[in-house]
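cron nightly-structures :: item 1 of 1
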Amino acid sequence: MSAISFQNLNKGELTQLLDVARDAIRGHFSDDLPQPPQLDLYSKKLLQPGACFVTLTVNGQLQGCLGTTVAHSPLVMEVHNKARASAYQDRRFMPLVEEQLDDLMVEVSVLSQPEDLAVDSEQALVDYLDNNKVGVILSDNHRQALFLPQVWEQLPNPKDFIRQLKLKAGWNSVYWSPSMKVQVFKVSSISGKYYY
């Protein structure tokens, strides 16, 4: 079965995915055991394998962001699992607590298939990113870091964007290697306030 293309999702389908993410978080705060999505309620399109990230912010500050670049399971399930993981398993943050829910924003990003970008230097990557505000994955020597395209809102300068991405991977800001692998991708995303 082929993976769903991020471009094939309409606003209604993205809204359904946002609701799945909200429900996954809501289930943690209810007395009942959290329930996975009931798959027979969703279209065939949303049941195709899909890669996604779920990003949580509280008062504009990042509170969790986890996902995958490879489509393993139905998109609906991926969104559900990544929403729960972002809320409670992102090791960079304390787990989400009830007091934060009033100020919680949830964003679901469905990824395109990452494509290799042939660049022979960091400057070549900067030049490419000057005209292409895409998501970027850098990997080299068992280290990897990813920024979604939305990060351009905080880091509009390509040099700063790359520098911060390298720091995220654990390299120093001037690190570059001839074996550095660069992949780029696009997303289709939707965000909204969490509600009870």
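cron nightly-structures :: done
The mean pLDDT is 92.
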